Amino acid sequence: MSHIARYTTLAVVLSQGSAAVLAQDDAPLMIEEVLVTAQKRSGSLQDALMSVSAVSGEDMSFRAQTSVEDLQSSVPGLNISNTGGAVLISMRGIGTNVFSGATEPGVALHIDGVYQPRPSIGPIGFSDLARVELLRGPQGTLYGRNSSGGVINFILNKPSEEFEASTLYRAANNDTHAAVVKLSGPISEHFRARMVLEGDITDGYIKEQPGNRDSNESNGWGGRLAFSYATDGIFSADLSYLYRYDNGAGMSSNAVNRVSPNPEAESTGLFFLPTDTSEPDDSITGEPWERKLNYHPDGERRTVNVSTKLTWSWELAELSYIGGYQDHFRTEFFDADYTANDIYYIPGRHDSSESFGHELNLSGDTDSLQWLVGLYYFEEQFSPYLPADVPQAGGGAGISVRPRTVEDIEAIAVFSDITYAITDRAELNLGVRALHDEKVALQNITFTTSDGIPIPTVPDTLESCENLELKTEASEVTPKIGLRYEFSDSFSVYGSRSVGYKSGGSNFTSCGDTYDPEEVVSLELGIRSTWLDRRIIANASIYDSQYKNFQTLKLNGLRGDIINAEGARITGGEIEAQFLVTHSLTLSSNISVMDAYYEKFSDDDSTNPDAGEQDLSGEELTRAPDYTINIAADYRWPLSLQTFDEMRFRLEHFRSADVTLRPFDGPADVQDAYGFSNAFWGLNGPNLSLKLFVKNIESTEYYLFAAGDSTERVHASAGAPRQYGMEIDYRF
């Protein structure tokens, strides 16, 4: 092709693009309205009487967000880490720091409104998301137990009215590959169906030394079947079946050592610890993506998730039933001392969970009143097995601990939520939930030598028990009151007082030991505003949360127990803003500031037993930084090409203040302030999309979680280093 021909072709392309821009300029310049179901009914996000964020599945796909932890850069006040064994979610400083996964979360996870009881379900449903709604602050009235920090609801795509088919392929560094196939459409006049198949594999980013062996590789596959039935009449139904299976070292703990072991502490510590086993080169310090192990980790995870929604709609009311079933199993094998020394080993920790949830709602809507009443029932059988081996303990005899527990959980609740329009601009929201939790655990804990010889109980150190039954139960009323006033169509304020609740339970590694429920009372004031005819959306809130019996983790040798801090307090504020500068350019930002601390709490540091019990009153809560900032620029350029009609580029940056990982003053207890940037580029068309991405461009080193043991080691899990890749999505 001659230079003249090239320039002529380029001029034609540019003129077509300019014409598209001019045509686009005729469209209204405003940010589209976002609908959410945070209050169990569809409504504008700007009218919600709570702090709620929504991220669309399309946006998550463009930003290569394939796991829960990727949401951290999208929502203020959200902190997420993945230890391999469990996803640890904190919202506004509240969540869980129990890395074994053998506890219920403090931020409730839901899939299509169905509660997920365990924090280790993995990326189930992520390849077929319509959107994710994140409700910050206690949600005890509408969502009940274990929502003291908030709620994350994954809402999946429904079967489509028209036939759709697509294939997606993603490739990234660390030899990462993923594929997704989707089919959706009508079966008959009233039935529609959707099928999704997915598979992925990665070598991971953590390496074992020497030899550079992959240390968190994994592979997984799964799928989804969904059916919808709808007519022009009263009844409609939705059914969804999800399956996900993962295995590999990535299913196990990905911690590394941040502090070198202390041989003297090992030889003078509790009697079951090994003696003089450490050498300077046996562990790696300060390297978040490298570690030395003498046992290669491995693990497996399997989840079946079934949900159904039945709806009867009449002129004055609507009746709906939401039911869910989950069968979840997880196992992990890993080197618990994270060194080349043969000190601790987890020879196959696993847990299984089978649960049923049922919710019945009756709701109605008039000119001045929106109302909802509901019944809820949940049952689960949870069976954790948390073994540990200490091969060199007792002068070489070795010690094996085998804690087995079967826990039956039953919860029942009645609740109501009403919103009354006092005037055209003022509305009052009242809600209340009465709930009852009951847990019955059967404990069996044994200690033996490596040869199977029983070890007698040693008070405060080793405790054996056989068929010990523990029962915990609690009844709670969690009310909410809120008031919203609309000064104009573009500016409103709201205030609320809400109560959250997290259930208590039994400690699975300590005979006869239980912990109390957690309760939070939170006050919140917020502003919802739009400016320049919806070219700008700016929402802000401030809150004050008072916690009673705050649940936190305590490590004591081979035991890891949940204990209650008498009190904790969190005050803070958040801002979310979007600015549609032009039809093509959108600027966005969210900011969180927080002051989270123990009001009254004492604990001893397992890595420093000589210090005894320490007064931690006033110390910052874990994973609750003083501030986080997200900023982003998103540019869309219309094209008039045969294959592509849009080019999109997004650049974003995340910044966090210092993060307390453990509330002590050790050298590895705080992650210093850090930040990282992500960039995304794509070409979109009616049938084909091409995307490129780079996450953590700077390959910033930062830790998200840490725990210590009585050998003076601090183990920590790091965020991922630089990740880059491409994606091809073809729609038939």
Automatic annotation (TrEMBL):
Coiled-coil portions: none
Residue ranges of every copy of the TonB-dependent receptor-like beta-barrel domain listed in the record: 258-697
Membrane topology: Multi-pass membrane protein
Keywords: Cell outer membrane, Ion transport, Iron, Iron transport, Membrane, Receptor, Signal, TonB box, Transmembrane, Transmembrane beta strand, Transport
InterPro entries listed in its UniProt record: Beta-barrel_TonB, Beta-barrel_TonB_sf, Plug_dom, TonB-dep_rcpt-like
Annotated signal peptide: 1-23
Record keyword RNA-binding present: no
Keyword Ion transport included in the entry's annotation: yes
Cellular compartment(s): Cell outer membrane
Chief subcellular location: membrane
Domain of life (superkingdom): Bacteria
One Pfam family cited in the UniProt record for this chain: TonB_dep_Rec_b-barrel
Domain TonB-dependent receptor plug residue range list: 45-151
Protein family membership: Belongs to the TonB-dependent receptor family.
PANTHER family: FERRICHROME IRON RECEPTOR-RELATED (PTHR32552), TONB-DEPENDENT OUTER MEMBRANE RECEPTOR (PTHR32552:SF81)
Name of the protein this chain belongs to: TonB-dependent receptor
Organism: Spongiibacter thalassae
